[in-house]
Amino acid sequence: MYALEVTRRVGKRFLFQRSIGVHFCNLRCNQELANPQLWMFPCVARVSQPDTSVRLFQIKSSASSVAEQNRREDSDIKLEPKSHRFLPNGLRELNNELKNLATLGKAKEAEDLLENAIKNSTISPNDHSFTTVIHAYVKGNFPNVEQEASRILNRMNELFESKRVDTRPNYLVYSSVIDAIAKSKKTGAARRAEAMLRQMQEFHETGTYGTDIKPTIVTFNTVIDAWAKTHHDPDAAKRAEAILTYMQELHDSEDSDIRPNVFSFNSVIHAYAQQKSPTGAAKAEYILNWMTKNSEINSDSSLLPDIITINSVIDCWAQCSSIDGATRALELLDRVEQEYVNGQSNVRLDRLTYTSVINAFAKSSARDSAQKAEQVLNRMEYQYKSGNLFCKPNAFAYNTVLNAYAKTSNSVMESERLFLKMKSAYEEGDDELMPNVVTYATLMEAVASDNTRDAAIKCEKYLDLLEAQQEKDYSVQILSVAHYNIAISAWAGAALEDSGYRAEQIIERIERLPSGHIKPDLYTFNSAINAWAYSNSAQSARRALRLLRMAEGAGMTPDYISFSTVINALAKSDDDDAAELSEELLHEMSRNYQDGQLSQKPNAVTFTCIIDAWAKRGLPDKAEDVLMVMERAYASGNKDAEPNTVSYSAVIEAWCQSRLPESFVSAKKSFGSNEKIATRRA
After folding, report:
1. Burial class of residue 80 in the structure, from the number of CB atoms within 10 Å of its CB (0-12 exposed, 13-18 middle, 19+ buried)
2. CA separation for the pair 419, 442 (Å, rounded)
3. What's phi and psi for 2, nearest 5 deg?
4. Residue 19: pLDDT above 50?
């Protein structure tokens, strides 16, 4: 006989030891082991013998035969899910099998196992048993998880009242139901979760369920977080703050178990962040200051704001999209930087902090917003070079500054300078600064905004650069149809005689790409149609109409922009049949709209272009007919087709220029209709 010392292992820790007498030959467990089931877990066996080395064994023990070897070496018995007919031999085995099923989200199987254990054995499930089944429904993402959790709570109450289980629902069970409600994402879930929290608190204060019903910090935080994630309730942030205040009041009344922690405050800040308003941002900063004060009063550094707190408040100000918001975000950045230097805070700012401030200036309308955004980027680079590795600038930071410059006038030079700096850093080995899809799109939009031939040519040169870079590595997608669309728009903006031709050449360029994963989209064709519409070429209208049909042939459904732009090109055309063609397109749009193509709904611009086409050809009666169709379309419910001053003025001018005998009467009639529409709007 040898003494075999068995030690249960959990990770690298050893929880307890016991000596078991074993037979030397086959290491069978002796009858001394009173409850062999207790030992069905991985363990380390050490044979103690003079002058012998330590050997490791996997112990297998069973009441009558060798039991199933457990394959996992952790703190819990994790068995393969068994049939619902399986009956555990003890509470421990029941709870572990329930946990195993819950981990897999098999809620129905877990509940069946619980019910079978109640009906067919002497086991009395405890709070962990019911809580685990509720967790299984949450884990399984059941659509009716709230109802299922409430049903299990009621079932436990029923079993306790009938003395079939020894434990009544306690804080664990109620907290699990609250968690299920919060995660159901149903309308009003946060409000119902709060109602159950208050019910728990009431039970605790009145002693209805004894002392084991008291909500914990986790319970309160779950409800606060539920409100924080409620996006369509205007009172969500206020409710989250009210619960936070209640927690603080409980703590101040010497309930030391309940004290708001960092998660509590951060969740309320997140709730105010959803408002995306100056009021919400101001409240978020108020919560931040409350946290700091709380930490000072309690002399507890664990209550100090963390990096999540700081970044959330700064982002609140950034979402305001205003000069004041950007200024407040920068002030908070300055404050936290200084507090860290002075040793007043252990929060070291990271990449997200600086990028949020950059974004705040990019979204603001300040004249110097782009310059200030770049200044913050430079501070970010200085912090990184000074040793704060969490502040390393990346492509997103540069792209945000590029976007700020793109929104300003005369932005091309600054945008290109910043792009070259970024590209140079990438070529020197900084992979995080590789220009990406957004980089080139933002740069090209800034260049295209010049609306000149040089700008359009430069956009095509960036396409050359993109294509060359993409050919080197197809594993990273940096080229997209958006880049080609911007180049086409650049030619449309230049409004040159050859703009339409150059736009079509870019479409052909897309079609020649070897990869085949980039194809022209509707925006591509609309931009090219626009390029023809604003060119001074004699072929503009015909080529624009041809592109419209090409889009249809490629399987696309042209929208009202496609049709209206072609109609506009026809209206300006000198072709004899241009007016007839434009009116045919209008009828085609109307038919398609009535058949369900909502994107082809004619609007006031569409009708007015056709009125102009007939007026240009000296046919005011035709122009007035279109106006009448326009009025009927508006009366039938197409609110986008409401005749306006431009529409009536076009008809009046058509009659006046025609010099026909009835011109004065017809023009006066149209003028009267215009006065009526003006009165209706007033």
Report:
1. exposed
2. 10
3. -130, 150
4. no
* pLDDT confidence of residue 87: 64
Do 45 and 14 contact (CB within 8 A), yes or no? no
Mean pLDDT of 287-316: 91
Q: Which residues contact 116 (CB under 8 A, 6 or more apart)?
A: 84, 85, 87
Range 157-165 average pLDDT: 91
Distance CA 362, CA 378 (A): 15
Residue that is written with structure tokens 């540069």 in the block:
398
The domain ranges of the chain are: 1-75, 306-421, 436-556, 559-681
Q: Which residue has the tokens 């997200």?
A: 352
Q: How many beta carbons lie within 10 A of that of residue 533, not counting itself? A: 25
Contact criterion met (CB below 8 Å) for 356 and 318: yes
The residue-averaged pLDDT of 666-670 equals 51
Q: What is the largest CA-CA distance in the chain?
A: 129
**DSSP of 272-329:** HHTT-SHHHHHHHHHHHHHHHHHHHHHT-GGGS--HHHHHHHHHHHHTT-SHHHHHHH
Task: Please count the residues of the chain.
Answer: 682
| Residue 493 scores a pLDDT above 50 | yes
Q: What does the alpha-carbon distance between residue 562 and residue 545 come to, in Å, rounded to a whole number?
A: 9
What's the CA dihedral at 633, 636, 642, 647 to 10 degrees? 30
Query: What's the distance, CA 275 to chain centroid?
Result: 15
Q: What are phi and psi of 74, to 5 degrees?
A: -140, -165
Asked if residues 243 and 194 have their Cβ atoms less than 8 Å apart, the reply is yes
Based on the number of CB atoms within 10 Å of its own CB, is 402 exposed (0-12), middle (13-18) or buried (19 or more)?
A: buried
Task: Decide if 611 contacts 652 (C-beta within 8 A).
Answer: no
| Tokens matching residue 69 | 């070897």
Comparing 79-83, 555-559, 653-657, which segment has the lowest mean pLDDT? 79-83
Task: Encode pLDDT of 372-425 as tens digits.
Answer: 999 999 999 999 999 999 999 999 999 999 999 988 877 899 999 999 999 999
For residue 43, the surrounding DSSP H or E stretch is: strand 43-48
Does the pLDDT value for residue 193 go beyond 70? yes
User: Is 0.85 surpassed by the pTM of this model?
Assistant: no
Q: Which of 490, 482, 319, 476 is nearest to 395 (CA)?
A: 476
CB atoms within 10 A of CB 3: 12
Give the residue from 556, 560, 568, 508 showing the smallest Cα distance to 532: 568
Q: Give 43's strand partners.
A: 8
**Helix 560-572 vs helix 540-553: angle between axes, to the nearest 10 degrees?**
160
**Do residues 344 and 333 lie in contact, with contact meaning Cβ atoms separated by under 8 Å?**
no
CA–CA distance, 614 with 580 (Å, rounded to integer): 9
Residue 548 is predicted with a pLDDT of 97
DSSP secondary structure of 564-618: HHHHHHHHH---TTHHHHHHHHHHHHHHHHHTT-GGG---HHHHHHHHHHHHHTT
CA distance 502 to 455: 13
| Cα-Cα-Cα-Cα dihedral sign, residues 17, 21, 23, 28 | negative
**What span, in angstroms and rounded, lies between the C-alpha atoms of 302 and 306?**
9
If you compute the radius of gyration of the chain from its CA atoms, what whole number of angstroms results?
A: 37
State the Cα–Cα distance between residues 379 and 355, nearest whole angstrom. 11
Q: Side chain identity at 26, as an amino acid letter?
A: N
CA distance 43 to 22: 15
Q: Which two tokens stand for residue 113?
A: 């196992």
Termini Cα distance of the chain: 105
Question: Quick one: DSSP state of residue 79?
Answer: P
Q: Mapping DSSP to helix (H, G, I), strand (E, B) and coil, where does residue 149 land?
A: helix
Sole residue written with tokens 């393969």:
80
pLDDT of 407? 85
